[in-house]
User: Fold these one by one.
Assistant:
Number 1:
Amino acid sequence: MTRSARKNIKKGDVLIREGERGDSAYILETGSVEILITRNGALMQIGTRGPGSIIGEMAMIDDKPRTATIRALEDCAVLEISRADFANRVESADPIVKMVMNVIMTRYRDMISRSQFMQSPVHAMSAVETAENSGEMHDLAVNAIKIHNELKTALEKDELVLYFQPIISVQDMKIAGFEALMRWQHPERGLIPPGVFIPVAEESGLITDMSHWGLGVACDAVKTLHAAIDPQLCGKHPPFISVNFSVRDFSDGDFAEQVSAVLRAKGVSPAHIHLEITESLLMEEPEAAKLALEKCRALGTSVSIDDFGTGYSSLSYLHHFPISTLKIDQSFVRSMNSDPSSKVLVKSIIGLAHSMNMKVIAEGIEGADEAAILKKMGCEECQGYWFAKPMPLEDALTFVKNWAPPKVA
Ligand code: C2E
Ligand code: CA
Ligand code: CA
């Protein structure tokens, strides 16, 4: 992960050499290159490429020797895409996209080998030409690769940060814990919200490194928090920090072991870190999630289902999973005041969750009236702008020191 994604190539330098194996393709950002093949012992130019072109894309399929040499005609800047990154993207793609991709790749490889067999530079050229994407598709792909590459660097350069939003035990108005929410402190674009970069990270597979990083930082934060907080201000237990995870975090099989290793390395009790996963994750990977979550519960970490009510699953379906807490999505809380049926729904979700020994957290509390209704309904914990917006750790420490419980009817 230390490799820089952008490379500068001097005029005359060889970026790719015929016959050598390679595991990267490149997008030419600026400058131009020539494509050369060896014929009768001499290099022969079969074409040139300018900004926006994809070069060496065969390396995305396999590690066969390069079929051409690529040499810079002037100083160039290129973006590198490694086969591993590409494989991650294909792996996470929609099954139809994946299938079409495989067919195109196989045909493309066949076409290249046929044209090489015919030994004709013109055929070789036309095969190279087919790899050129055009228009919107190309721009979208380049943009996604750029964000992905920038994100990789962001992780290395410590540009990712965690913000913390308090979760309040609404029955006694004590601080129950905080949810850790990721932001990207971009050097030029400022603070970028997770809605922009988490989906790209999920698509490319980078999310697993980011989640690992987030868990480590959350562990450090919970220790700092415990050292700073007045026990009078919290409930029966010292405050927890909950960390969000994605479906990709579960796909490599040893999720629970990795969580356990981080907690051990940081010296943090599993009781002080809660895991948040969305309802849709359970629907996508039910077996893998069930197994991983059972192991996590055995460690002693709580598991919360995030955005409950948005994923079309039923509470009876969720009962198969070892879930300790249900987080009711903010859309239900928002509509409680205007729509009486929402209120009935929230009340019955709380009742059913309790009958299954699950605790309930309501998300998106923006007013005293919402907090009052939820308190009356027996909801344990609430989170929302009315208490506080997500904030950097330093501000969260000030928040706990100055915590004056608001009056709720
Ligand atoms: P989420 O996990 O449901 O987090 C709650 C979101 O609601 C946060 O948005 C929070 O700032 C916002 N919120 C909290 N209270 C209120 C309120 O009273 N009103 C309104 N309108 N919004 C409120 P944020 O921080 O932009 O995060 C968006 C989503 O990004 C999160 O939704 C979560 O799905 C994802 N995310 C954030 N951090 C991480 C992370 O570290 N890993 C993963 N995998 N996903 C993350
Ligand atoms: Ca969450
Ligand atoms: Ca949520």
Number 2:
Amino acid sequence: MTGAEDEAAAVVADQQTVLVVDFGAQYAQLIARRVREARVYSEIVPHTITAAEVAERAPAALVFSGGPKSVNVEHSPRIDPGIYDLGVPILGICYGAQLIADQLGGQVGGGGSGEYGRTELRRLEGVDSDLLGDDEDPQTVWMSHFDAVTRVPEGFTATAASDGAPNAVIECPERRIWAVQYHPEVAHTPQGQALLERFLHRLAGCADTWTMGNFIEASVAAIREQVGDGRAICGLSGGVDSAVAAALVHRAVGPQLTCVFVDTGLMRKDEGEQVVETFRRHQGIELVHVRAEDRFFDRLAGLTDPEDKRKAIGELFIRVFEDARGGVEDARFLVQGTLYPDVIESGTAHAATIKSHHNVGGLPDDLDFELVEPLRLLFKDEVRAVGSELGLPDEIVWRQPFPGPGLGVRIIGEVTPDKVAVLQEADAIVREELRAAGLERQIWQSFAVLPDIRTVGVMGDERTYGYPVIIRAVTSDDAMTADWARIPYDVLESMASRIINEVPGVNRVAYDITSKPPGTIEWE
Ligand code: XMP
């Protein structure tokens, strides 16, 4: 294990753990987040986990996720049947429920037309249900299934049904196995979180120990153990992940941490000053502020191809970061804001991923550091909660994702200081208006883009020939897919009129209504 993995293991050593078994298509991440919202620590494991491995981990419970396959097709994902005999409480969800029925002697069939979307779930008469407890009856649940459990395994009782699923909830308290055809983890199932909490707390006996206060305490101790009396450095990007990682490490080792903030000149308006202000003045963190705008603009002169621009920014960033290390040459530890979804995506929880805060090429792995990754157990919403508890301001804690190459990929064509100044002003207006409308936190990313064209307009009696600005705003859960945000017309209107009136050189505003796919979120 790497130092960062040891540190993570120490943080959860005293936590009861729920293992969420992943049957595909990212259903497991949402379940794991909901379990943690119930104040129980959860981890995602692949369905290939063996009974022996589960026994060794001694989890407090298992949750089987949904998945895109049918249990009746060849090579559908299965689980080691020995797991059912361990006595560990199990909750099956959707595919997980069907798999339990199939593997324990019941039957799963296609037959009907399936159920997709909001569905009515009714309790069956004459049977008690530990799992449904005192949930309202009937209740609305979110279904997304073609197959259904057509015969309940021996020892199980069906306790609720819907039109398309006669055995929508099945239970076997003697074996401590419960299963639901619907999705309690999604917001469209109003009593879903209550069901998960009942399973975790009442049926599996989990205590409320996963809180961000407890996390900070355990993490501070583990970081002290890892870093000892060594020196650490952290590259700040202005983003929430590196900010929270730095604040946490600072809480643990104080002046042994030095932060390096490379100002590329490609940040949003006032963002550079805000980083310096927050970290140096408010948090009292030693901060090396490298003003490298000129070097970046020189390097970008004449470059128009998006990949050339990305590469140039990434390479120069590493060079500047390396130069800045001069003052802290004895630093042995590099703090990174790697999050749990990055760890999962790297394929294995034990893979040490070096994810640069810029993601543009990344920091090279020959940088001779041991990594400190205090957020590698956390989902983004937990990182924000930790940031708030550590006293970071809302502007940083709630900051939207921002690409490493910054405004460099939002200015189409050559990047110049003049164009950056125009875009910064327009972009600030987009964000101000969205905040004023109370929409900022519902939107994944919102920004302005400056294309490499001019358009004709008229202002007063004058013909103008200026830049158009494109507003881009999307909703998303993870940036893999995104939808254009349905911003009210009056908000768009105030953005447009302010941009044209307040930003010299801009005479037209367009709104991008492309989803991802087929578009990407950024324009380059
Ligand atoms: P796209 O444009 O591919 O973006 O839909 C998906 C997400 O990634 C961000 N993004 C980047 N982040 N370096 C980064 O660190 C990059 O080069 C980069 N390009 C895109 C983008 O802002 C969105 O959140």
Number 3:
Amino acid sequence: MEEIFKLYGWNVINRIPIHQGLINSTYSINTTQGDFIFQSINHHVFKTPSAIDNNINAISNFVKKQDPHYLFTHLVPTNEGKTLIEWEGGYFRAFQKIDGYALSVLENENQVEEAAKQFSKFTQVLKGFEVDLLQDTLPQFHDLNLRYHQFTAAIENGDAQRIESTQEEISFLKEHKKLVDIYDHFIKNKEAKKRVTHHDTKISNVLFNKVDGVEAAICVIDLDTVMAGHFISDVGDMCRTCLCAVSEEEKDLNKVKVDSKKWDALKKGYLHNMESELSHFELDHFFYSGQFMIYMQALRFLTDHLNRDIYYGAKYDGQNLVRTQNQIRLLEEYNKLA
Ligand code: GN1
Ligand code: MG
């Protein structure tokens, strides 16, 4: 890494690993020139890091012109002006560090409303951006048909013992396949518009800070999956990660509960910026968004468990099964809101 830091001309004082995301490796770098976020991109997941680099720079340029005060994680160029570095088969980049903190669960409705406002503001600020300029950094990322297909393939070809011991979870997910049919119906409708979509609005991807002594969400981070997409992805992942007092890692399923006041706050915060943008047809799918994302995440976690954790990895045996069970319970609790 020291060699790469030289390309930025940094005098590094210290570097601290940040263990937030499941995919990339992230460090906070303290230098005599300022503080930066430095990341190595997981190119086994993101096969074309240049697509991410193009997208973030395109959006960054748009924002600088249209809305210069909008707080954005602009990429930092090296002394040669590069924002993506290829080094010994790896890919690296740096961002301006923004003062703030990320949370993995939210404690109160104010935080939920604040977070939802930031994610909806992101799409709203980029309303005039030509969405077709965005490249697909992960093709079919939130295609629920593909995720269902990957799940059925894992039931066919995955680890035999794990398949045997997860029959209950497999049945649950099969029984809820109608959520895939609703998705099909949704995306085929002309009123379901493609917009600049974050695609990873899990709650740890918004920064909070105190503004005039009051806690506020100040900016969204982790823009690798920003692509053209549907609002159900962004609203859905917020539902998945904002409404419950425990995270997807929680083993005690009795703690997995959905707070209806937080749901009201999420809706209020998101619609604050996006209500006038969404069609009636889209608004009719607001609740479905949460079902869509929680269900997809359960499918993805179980698929990975059956495939012996090749995608998400596992810090302990059965971690992706725990996550699956957690998301299944979350879906059951979420459905009670209806
Ligand atoms: C991954 O790496 P991270 O934590 O930002 C995943 C998301 C999942 C999430 C589940 C590229 O996000 O889709 O919702 O884990 N990102 C990718 O925690 O697969
Ligand atoms: Mg991410």
